[in-house]
Amino acid sequence: MRLHHVQVACPPGGEDVARRFYGDGLGMTEVDKPADLVARGGCWFRAYDRSGAVTAEVHVGVEDPFAPARKAHPALVVDDLDEVAERLRAVGAEVDDSQRTSFPGHLRFHTFDGHGNRVEVLSPLSPGI
Known about the structure:
With 129 residues, the chain is of the alpha/beta class. It contains two helices and eight strands. The strands form two sheets. A four-stranded mixed beta sheet has the order 1-4-3-2, with helices on one face. The two termini are 18 Å apart.
């Protein structure tokens, strides 16, 4: 089994805020939604490794009424935690590294996307974790 994608929510019209966070901040690539799903709104993002394989996929879907996920969250593994933290700060996201060393084998921080959904970002202390 493997995880195909995780979905987070945004309010109607919230796609540009999601693009700033997931695209500009996290460095993910926006991909086209299937034609049958475009009318629902939202946007999809993927991360790729150096070989071009998909390593993560986040779907931002529209919910009305909207309520952010403050506890439930995706946890994304990155190579350079500090670089990602700086990009997120540059787009206005708060980076909380108060639990930086609290997850065995990794460094991490928590942040919230522009709609208040919690996101965890981790980097392994050793390759292959």
